[in-house]
Amino acid sequence: MPKPKREPHLISDKTANLLKRVEQAKAGGGADRLAAQKAQGKLTARERLDLLLDDDSFEELGLLVEKRATEFGLAQRYLAADGVVTGLGRINGRSVCVFSQDFTVMGGSLGLAHAKKICSLLDLAEESGVPVIGLCDSGGARIQEGVESLGGYAEIFYRNVRLSGRVPQISAILGPCAGGAVYSPAITDFVFMVEGTSHMFITGPDVVKAATGEVTTFDELGGARTHSSRSGVSHFTAGSEQDCFRQIRELLEYVPQSCFEAPRSVIPTDDPKRSSPQLGRISEMDAKKPYSVHDVIWEIADGHSFFEVHRDFAPNIVVGFIRLGGDSIGVVANNPRHLSGALDIAASEKGARFVRFCDAFNIPLLTLVDVPGYWPGVEQEHGGIIRKGAKLLYAFAEATVPKVTVVLRKAYGGAYDVMSSKHVRGDFNFAWPCAEIAVMGPQGAVDILFRREIQAAKDPAKKRAELIDDYARNFANPYLAAQRGYIDEVIPAADTRAKVVAAFHFLKNKKVEPVAKKHGNIPL
Q1: Which of 178, 190, 326, 368 could form an S-S bond across to 333 if both were Cys, CB 3.0 to 4.6 Å?
Q2: Per the confidence metrics, is the pTM higher than 0.90?
Q3: Which pLDDT tens digit goes with each residue over 391-407?
């Protein structure tokens, strides 16, 4: 809020003392440390809040909190705000709770008072039903405070779990995040990282070298690119802190304040019945020719706009948010451009996490299916594709939000079941005329069903080709599934947007009573 103006001669001694304390607390680690922060290309804790939040909306809490620890020279040190700025603010007019760790104060290390400030903020978010945003820039536990620092982390973790599925939790890694500190962001819903300045790891390069002999760098071990593309820990990569805050503000436009609300709708400016010749052309392509499913998503979405999540991880499945008729919708789509759109371990976990987030926060799900099955191989089997692949099945079956599915080209085997089929309670299931729904592709089916007949033929290759054509014509199509009620309607591809907008509009008031139990046991 704007600071009230005071005439110097009207300030009492007590007020002057207060203003001095406030100024000292807001000074962080001092001019030298603030300059060092800038030299690393990083913003200060308070500058970050100014950029993230609406103008003049931040109300600080706990500014004058101080440490109690006195060991190892702490008695002689003043730690401004104990290294973390906490408070309330607004983003696009919506209330949020936010904390910003201050690396200029003992490297942003977490002590007991620091932890208590964050815990108080998380408790307030739970009681008030507002999202939490953490701006992380910390060297980890404050060694001087020993077990109290560790206890502080555990108290934060406990609250992260309590808040999970209740209010959205967002973490932005804007510097180091090491050791036990990484587990709080890992529990939150979305993690943002900035190229060049963000690092997350359990143990740093020096410890890795001492323990295993492996030589690595900070970026290779735990940089933004590593965690966005290889580990999947990070959902969004930003080129700068400013870009990171822009993305956070955009993300919040698609999610509600809490699980007790629906996401905000906007007034649609796009024709809900808009036809798409581009989708018609995609549906007429050679079934063996790959395409990017992004082209399909953009054609369906309001304003051709798609906010993708986890873009660089497991690209064979695409997840993110669009608007349909002004409403926020979560999209899960197989992407034939990568691994033919097959499901592997990484894609299954990526999809499952996103589906469960959407279900927790009342965001309807649109599933676009073009899947040949699960990706085969010894590495996948030994890596646990049975257990880990079941996570996506569990997530879709568990979800009670409105679910609309469109089979674009192929849906084979168990992957057909998994991708929000009618059997796991998809509400509306559509298919394009070119869709192939079967246990497996025509080539594999013919080789199994007609093996002896092919071997006995005078020209086995010709006989096999004839049988494949016959099988594809009679079985690799959407009509058998439609005859049995597993597909509600076979639709012209060009009409996909109109069909799904109408379906979600009909499902807007869908209610499903939860099964009476404590909770399920997802195959983790």
Answers
A1: 368
A2: yes
A3: 999 999 999 999 999 99
